[in-house]
Amino acid sequence: MTTKIVPLVSINNNAEKSVDVSQIQLGAFRWVWGDFSLKPEEAFDLFSKSRDIGITTLDTADVYGDYQCNKLVGSVIGQLSNERDQIQIVGKTGIRLISKHYPEIHVAHYNTESEYIYKNIRQQLIDVQTDYFDILNIHRPDYLLNPRDLVDTFEKLRTEGMVKNFGVSNFDVHQFDLLQSECLKRGFSLVTNQIEFSISHLNPVLDGSFSQAFKHSFRPQIWSPLGMLHKETLSEKEKRLKSKVEGVASQIGATADQVALSFILKHPVGGLPVLGSTKFERIKQGAESLQIVDKLTRQHWYDIYEASNGEKVP
């Protein structure tokens, strides 16, 4: 029998009702990538094996894979309709990319207008073969965003049972505060901000994003959690950072990937790494970071931070 190594955790303690997600999450970002695509049976096998070890949260977006990824996700979810309450699906909306599937789009842009968001979510739910998203994130901040109109749309989607909870992705602290203030007026909170954080991208520690997460009692979802570890070409600084991570890995009996994930998990904000690999062996190895994170000491963490930041702390 497979051992579940990934627990469920509450993503937002301020929500009207506890929103539980898996502490490590599976991302569908690379399920369709250029000329590559998982076959439906491969995608189902990947998610099934991930669920066996406790990864029950699946993160997707309409624009992934040139707008084709959600249909592949749907081929998986459609087979699990009787188990839907045991799965958490995080969707995203608001980005419009140039695509052969949408010839009317001639410039990449963002769209958070009410009519667009509502129609987009209806179509996404059809593609994903589900009745609702557990969490819907606004994918990127729209420079023409009207917070009152957008929260009106949130309320409509929630009232109609299409979305249970709302969050954002890639919002800075001011953009988050603006939308959060409007949500709070209506009696609910944003449940997350999905942001980039890794050994090679320290911004959330420095720009107030993690402080804001503490303030509003939510766990940020973390995209690109492995940073530059698997880049084909590294700068001299990145080579030094990779060498530092590999050195720490050797000291604590872990892989470099596990050290990179432990660097995230060590931070008390409770970040939720979204793993994008299409290979279960790497997903499982990443999940096992939860078992070695205590071996990463505070000094290890700051040693990696210093190598990444390029200077000692003051």
From TrEMBL:
Recorded GO MF terms: oxidoreductase activity
UniProt cross-references to SUPFAM superfamilies, sorted A to Z: NAD(P)-linked oxidoreductase
Ranges where the NADP-dependent oxidoreductase domain occurs: 24-304
Any single Gene Ontology cellular-component annotation: cytosol
Tree of life domain: Eukaryota
Listed InterPro entries: AKR, AKR_Detox_Biosynth, NAD(P)_OxRdtase_dom_sf, NADP_OxRdtase_dom
PANTHER family associated with the record: NADH-SPECIFIC METHYLGLYOXAL REDUCTASE-RELATED (PTHR43364), OXIDOREDUCTASE YDHF (PTHR43364:SF1)
Official protein name in the record: Oxidoreductase
